[in-house]
Amino acid sequence: MKRDLLLFDGHRFQAARLALGVVNVKGAGSPYECKESGFWRTFAETDLSDETAIRHFIARYGDPVGRLPAPSPVANWQELQETLKLAATVWGEPDSDGICHASLDAATLKSRAPGGGALTVPFTLELKGKATARRVRTLADFMQVSAFTMIANRTPMRRCDACGYWYGYEHGGKKYCRPACTDVALRQSKKGAA
Ligand SMILES: [Zn+2]
Question: How far is the CA of 60 from the centre of ligand 1 (A)?
Fold first, then answer.
């Protein structure tokens, strides 16, 4: 199956602080190219009063609604979270390998969504070798398109063995969500063997 690549040019920030429901960061952040699928579900499950969880997310992906480095109230993240929580209901309980399979069809999900689940996301289309890539403009768009693409493709989901974040289980046997987590696991297994 030919797969379209979904991309987003983001900024992520270290050492975010949460006070009185507002996230603050120092500095302008560092640019990165986002292309991992599945972490939208980790965002959906993030407790918006948990500073550590929010700090981890922002250090990896940045501000879901793109306000940072200006102060970003987490109240603005709730609507996006609700949409993604609804998307997550498509997947069933994990099997013995920790893999969740899509068990709800898109039409049923749409009937549950407020406003019929219509999604309008602006993106630019790029050619990447023989494949096409869609580059969306915000992290919120990225997470929503990622979620809806995974629903359409019935992509199984799993939690990373290293960091616990959700990822799209597209290749059999892949236990980690990203190369950095594979490296962490490799270093730990070497340590254990030494
Ligand atoms: Zn991971």
Answer: 10
Kindly list the averaged pLDDT for each block of 10 residues, start to end, along the chain of length 194.
78 96 96 93 97 97 96 95 92 94 82 68 72 88 91 92 94 86 88 72
Centre of ligand 1 to C-alpha 185, Å, is 9
Q: Which of 35, 10, 23 is nearest to 170 (CA)?
A: 35
User: Tell me, what DSSP letter sits at residue 127?
Assistant: E
Indicate the pTM of the whole model: 0.89
The rounded distance, in Å, linking the Cα atoms of 73 and 68 is 10
**Domain ranges (residues) in the chain:** 5-193
Give distance in angstroms: CA of 115 to centre of ligand 1. Answer: 34
Q: Output the CA 123–ligand 1 centroid distance in Å.
A: 27
Give pLDDT, residue 1.
43
Q: Which two tokens stand for residue 8?
A: 């987003």
The answer to whether the Cα torsion of 107, 111, 113, 114 is positive or negative is positive
Q: Parallel, antiparallel, or unpaired for β 5-12 and 131-136?
A: parallel
